[in-house]
Write a structure and sequence with these properties.
Low-confidence stretches: none
Order of helices and strands: EHEEEEHEEE
Strand order of the largest sheet: 2-3-4-1-5-8-7-6
Mean pLDDT: 92
Distance between the termini: 11 Å
Helix content: 10-25%
Number of domains: 1
Shape: globular
Strand content: 35-45%
CATH architecture: Roll
Number of strands: 8
CATH topology: 2,3-Dihydroxybiphenyl 1,2-Dioxygenase, domain 1
CATH superfamily: 2,3-Dihydroxybiphenyl 1,2-Dioxygenase, domain 1
Length: 117
Amino acid sequence: MITGIDHIEIVVKDIDAMATFFTRLGFTEIRRTDHHGKAVELQVPGAEGIVIEFHTGYPTETPGINHIAFRVDDTVETATRFRELGVDINEPKVAENSGRAIASFRDPMHMRWQLSE
């Protein structure tokens, strides 16, 4: 069951500039990782734990929104339910950078979405 937005992942050219800009606006830097090159996670102020992750991306990625992740109570159960509804969703896995269970799928326009515990 989807319970909210977990995070929004955005491909940018300069994560340091984005981190500086958004922390000045009141966002809280949570951590930096080597996800997709270099990444920084910032918590949105007053937004119930929603995180924006800026990362430098791979050469094949276009700057902009990479995906939006929905927060769920149980990734495996929700992915199973989505399959029953005809959604082509990958098998849930544990993300190395966060240690959380995730599963990705694409909508009819081919935009990538994700489930995240």
